[in-house]
C-alpha cells in the first residue's frame, strides 16, 4: 500500500507544479492555437474558440514555425541507424544488418497510414511552436498487432 500512496502523492505534487503553468498555456492557446485551449476551462462541442482574435498573424506564425520544424516529413528512406560512438559495432556486418532491418521497419511504421504518426507528430510540432513543449504517446494498437 505504501508504493500506491507514494505514486498518488507524486501525482499530486506533479499536478501542483503543472497547475502553475495552466494560465500561461491558456493565454498562449487563445492567441496562437485556439483549438488547443481548454487549460483553465473546458471547451464544449460547438463553442466558439476565437472570440478575441482580430488578426491571424500569430496563428499563421505558429503554423509556419510548426511546418518548418517538421522532422518526419523529410525522413530519408531507409532510416540510417548506427551505434554512434562505437566504431567496432558500426563496422560489424551483423550489427549493420540489424540496424538496416530496424531502420526499414521504423520507416515503414512511421509512414503506415493506419499509424497516423505523421498526423500526430504534426500536432506535436504545433504544440512545440505554441507552448515550447509537446508530447507524443506511442504504443500498441487496439488489436495489439502493431
Q: Could you give a quick summary of the protein structure above?
A:
This protein is mainly alpha-helical. 54% of the residues lie in helices and 0% in strands.
State the main characteristics.
146 residues, mainly alpha, 0% strand, extended
Overview of the molecule:
With 146 residues, the chain is mainly alpha-helical. 54% of the residues lie in helices and 0% in strands. The chain has helices spanning 2-19, 22-32, 57-68, 87-91, 93-110, 117-131. The relative contact order is 0.10.
List the topology elements.
Blueprint: H1 2-19, H2 22-32, H3 57-68, H4 87-91, H5 93-110, H6 117-131
User: What value does the average pLDDT take?
Assistant: 84
Rg for CA atoms? 21 Å
SSE succession: HHHHHH
Please work out how many helical segments DSSP would assign: 6
Major sheet description: none
The geometry reads as extended
Through-space gap between termini:
35 Å
DSSP, total strands: 0
Helix content, binned percent: 40-55%
Low-confidence stretches: none
Class of secondary structure makeup: mainly alpha
Strand content: under 5%
Amino acid at each position: 500500500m505504501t508504493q500506491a500512496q507514494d505514486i498518488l502523492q507524486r501525482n499530486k505534487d506533479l499536478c501542483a507544479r503543472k497547475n502553475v503553468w495552466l494560465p500561461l498555456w491558456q493565454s498562449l492557446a487563445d492567441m496562437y492555437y485556439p483549438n488547443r485551449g481548454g487549460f483553465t476551462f473546458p471547451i464544449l462541442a460547438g463553442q466558439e474558440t476565437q472570440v478575441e482574435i482580430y488578426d491571424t498573424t500569430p496563428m499563421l506564425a505558429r503554423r509556419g514555425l510548426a511546418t518548418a520544424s517538421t522532422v518526419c516529413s523529410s525522413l530519408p528512406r531507409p532510416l540510417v541507424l548506427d551505434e554512434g560512438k562505437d566504431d567496432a559495432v558500426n563496422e560489424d556486418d551483423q550489427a549493420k544488418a540489424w540496424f538496416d532491418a530496424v531502420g526499414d521497419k521504423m520507416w515503414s511504421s512511421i509512414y503506415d497510414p493506419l499509424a497516423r504518426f505523421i498526423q500526430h507528430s504534426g500536432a506535436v510540432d504545433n504544440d512545440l511552436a505554441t507552448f515550447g513543449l509537446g508530447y507524443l504517446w506511442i504504443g500498441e494498437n487496439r488489436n495489439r498487432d502493431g
